[in-house]
Design brief:
With 151 residues, this protein is α+β, with helices and mostly antiparallel strands. The protein has helices at residues 4-13, 26-32, 35-43, and strands at 62-65, 71-74, 78-79, 87-88, 97-102, 109-114, 120-125, 135-138, 143-146.
């Protein structure tokens, strides 16, 4: 289980290796993604809070990256954060997410991106529920719900 100290260490020392990488040209990303998905995932944008029904969706299943289909989160780790964005306590595996220190807007945050295709997902904060204390605050348009559960 990842804790805040692990996230900070990975962001500082380098992200974990992944089994595959997906790289596409900007034209290929634009052709694949909706304008909002492109803005969020490729231009590091943020969707409006409370703009997605995904915030209140709590059925079993998995969430994958909209860009490369990499599995990122299990619905069993999802919780209601009240922030207006889907929130999770843990990724499905330690190397699913890459972490980058983000010092924009006069604060220090940790940006989360898909470790396979580098799609911007959102940020992780140390104010989540026990036992991890993490809150992965994700843009719903960066994720897609897929059937099934983690094995």
């Amino acid at each position: 289980m990842l804790k805040w100290s692990d996230v900070l260490r990975i962001a500082r020392d380098g992200n974990l290796e992944t089994e595959r990488k997906v790289a596409k040209s900007e034209n290929e990303w634009r052709a694949q993604l909706t304008p909002e998905q492109y803005y969020v995932t490729r231009q590091h944008g943020t969707e409006r809070p409370f703009s997605s029904q995904m915030c209140s969706l709590f059925e079993p299943g998995l969430y994958a990256c909209v860009g490369c289909d990499e599995l990122l989160f299990d619905a069993s780790e999802k919780f209601e954060s009240g922030t207006g964005w889907p929130s999770f306590t843990q990724p499905v595996k330690e190397n699913a997410i890459a972490y980058h220190a983000d010092e924009s807007f006069g604060m220090v945050r940790v940006e989360t991106v898909c470790n396979v295709c580098a799609a911007h997902l959102g940020h992780v904060f140390p104010d989540g529920p026990p036992p991890s204390g993490l809150r992965y605050c994700m843009n719903a348009v960066a994720l897609k719900k897929v059937k099934g559960e983690a094995t």
